[in-house]
Amino acid sequence: MREHLRTLRLATWLGWQLETNWASPWLFALYMLVKPVCGSLMLVCMFYAARSAAGARVPVEFLPYLYVSNACYGLVGHVMFGLSYAVVRDREHYRMLKYVYISPAHFQTYFLGRGAARGLEAVVGGVLNVGVGLFLFSELRNTVTVDPGWLLVYLAIGCAMLWACGMLLAGACLNMSRNGMFLSEGVAGVVYLASGVVFPLSALPAWVQSISLSLPTTYWLEGMRRALMGTGALPAQLRGPLADWTNGELAAMLAATTAVLVALAQLFWRWSERRAWRNGKLEENAGV
User: Among residues of the chain, what percentage have pLDDT more than 90?
Assistant: First the structure.
């Protein structure tokens, strides 16, 4: 256990150094604020454009839904992309992946630390993003009511869920070349649509809703919205198939789907790791 904790601590420190060493601390802090806020403000502009064109058909309650969902989804994108890109970066850019593998450090724990560094960056960016939204928009100030208990529950289960998603993508990238990093971007885009980040589940076609309800990210984002905005943040007609679920039912389903995902991630990672070692993928380089 001590070796795992040491690997986790050092990998997290290494990941943070790699993410921040390109700029001074003040410039990086500005980047962490500007990047997520600009993404959310783009959606805000889209909301006001749609409301100007359609009037009351776009309810004012949709703005907090949109803003908070996008802020929370930043954590999904950062961890999923961060873990898979760590494989490409260490193997293709620094050419150190094979040395990490044969070192005393636990290989999977190493990637957990790298993902934790990206997760920390996403959490800070998300908090700043929501803070700016509360300052700029009265709709958010009138809607956001944080429930600390449920927020901690959803964050705790969500960390395990995001780690499992990231390890699935990282395992796939172990056996792919440099362009494997685009896999996580494509998956993140699909999840962005299907998990109800921008469009409520009720606005999606029935067959897409079926896919949405099979994704643990759908339940996690719904839980995070409830923990930050309460259960009545949207009109009933826009709340979709999860409208009548209690927080307990939502957390139980999230925990169950996360448990299945963790088991699949472990099996897939071990298979991918063995295959990559046998086929020389840990030291393969696709060129500059």
Answer: 16
